[in-house]
Design a protein that fits this description.
The chain is mainly alpha-helical and about 290 residues long. It has 2 domains: about 130 residues, Orthogonal Bundle (Cytochrome Bc1 Complex, Chain D, domain 2), CATH 1.10.760; about 90 residues, Orthogonal Bundle (Cytochrome Bc1 Complex, Chain D, domain 2). β1 and β2 form a beta hairpin. The longest helix has about 35 residues. Bound molecules: heme C (HEC) (2 copies). The site of one heme C has 24 residues, from α3, β2, α4 and α6. It holds the Pfam family Cytochrome_CBB3. Keywords: Heme, Iron, Membrane, Metal-binding, Transmembrane, Transmembrane helix. This is C-type cytochrome.
């Protein structure tokens, strides 16, 4: 009698293990399909300047678009997620030093990465937020490339990206934005140069950098990194709707909100928003007020 129960229990456990293995096999298969998909895109080439004013403009854009959060302030590359369950994610060394970009990484390769989210094999980059950058105008994208290419070579070995089983399952289910090439309109014709200034229109253009976490609607919700704190609603329906422009600027430069909360840089990257100029923060404020 007792041994029969044991036998049944053993079979149930064994069955459960087999089901988990099959499910994981299916997710691994689907994951490989996403990663190995090859895209046929037309990369529209644009001139990349080399003058010091463009490089300075590119440096500012590198800072406010958050490139440094994942590639390091000196472009040497950086591990930005190291989670025992999800995996290890690291931004590439963007210099032409050892372990960085190969000499063959030309302007077209830069544009393919930034505007299409694709690597040299025309397969999707992982987690690189190219969907946000794909909407930047020619002027800004060329300035960023100019800045990156003007930086000194740094020898820093590449850190291979590892996506662990739970990370694979969540990315296949669309819970982690791991495959930027799938989120991009590859036919989009970007403007040569948008009009910059303290206006809601320009704020809308800049807000592309907020949508990855605050969602395209800017109403927030679940954190894009599973287990992270919920993302605030930053439309006029949230706290921001009650803040003055000066309070908004202080919050985005120091992380201190008028409600007395200290935002943690690891949750809300205010060291990035601290680099925005007054005009840029005013533009964002005016745009958020319209939402
Ligand atoms: C959220 C993190 C993140 C941010 C922000 C980010 N990147 Fe990346 N980037 C990555 C990761 C991760 C990779 C490597 C992806 C891979 O190898 O699949 C990458 C790859 C790249 C590549 C392609 C390198 C290659 O070998 O093909 C370029 C170029 C690049 N990033 C430039 C930039 C620039 C410029 C910015 C800012 C405008 C930026 N990135 C912002 C995470 C990020
Ligand atoms: C990497 C993800 C991420 C990005 C990118 C991001 N945010 Fe946030 N933000 C958060 C999270 C998470 C919170 C909530 C933090 C908390 O509750 O402690 C937050 C909170 C805020 C708050 C405070 C809201 C309140 O009610 O107190 C403001 C304002 C804000 N973000 C504005 C922005 C703007 C503007 C941008 C784009 C320029 C931006 N954020 C980009 C993740 C992000």
């Amino acid at each position: 009698m007792f041994s029969r129960i044991l036998k049944w229990a053993g079979m149930v456990v064994l069955g459960a293990i087999v089901i988990v293995l099959i499910a994981f096999g299916i997710f691994s298969f689907l994951f490989r399909q996403h990663v190995n998909k090859q895209y046929a895109v037309q990369v529209r080439e644009i001139p990349v300047p080399e003058d010091s004013a463009s490089i300075a403009a590119g440096k500012h854009l590198y800072e406010i678009r958050g490139c440094g959060e994942c590639h390091g302030t000196d472009l040497r590359g950086k591990v930005f997620v190291d989670d025992p369950v999800l995996g290890l994610l690291a931004g590439t060394n963007l210099t032409y030093g050892k372990g960085g970009l190969p000499d063959s990484f030309d302007n077209k390769a830069w544009l393919r990465a930034l505007r299409h989210g694709l690597n040299a094999e025309n397969k999707t980059l992982l987690l690189m937020p190219s969907e946000e950058f794909s909407r930047m105008d020619d002027h800004d994208i060329a300035a960023i490339i100019a800045f990156c290419k003007a930086q000194p070579k740094i020898d820093a070995p590449p850190v291979p990206i590892k996506i662990r089983p739970v990370g694979k399952v969540l990315s296949v289910l669309g819970k982690i934005p791991l495959f930027p090439a799938e989120m991009i309109d590859h036919k989009l014709q970007q403007p040569a140069q948008v009009v910059k200034g303290p206006t809601a229109d320009y704020g809308k253009y800049l807000s592309a950098s907020c949508t990855g976490c605050h969602k395209p609607s800017l109403t927030g919700g679940d954190n894009p990194v599973p287990g992270g704190v919920p993302v605030a609603n930053i439309t006029s329906a949230g706290h921001v709707g009650k803040w003055s422009k000066d309070e908004f600027i202080i919050a985005l430069r120091t992380g201190k909100t008028p409600e007395g909360k200290q935002l943690q840089v690891t949750d809300m990257p205010w060291t990035m928003t601290a680099r925005y100029t007054d005009d840029e923060l005013t533009a964002l404020y005016l745009y958020l007020k319209t939402k």
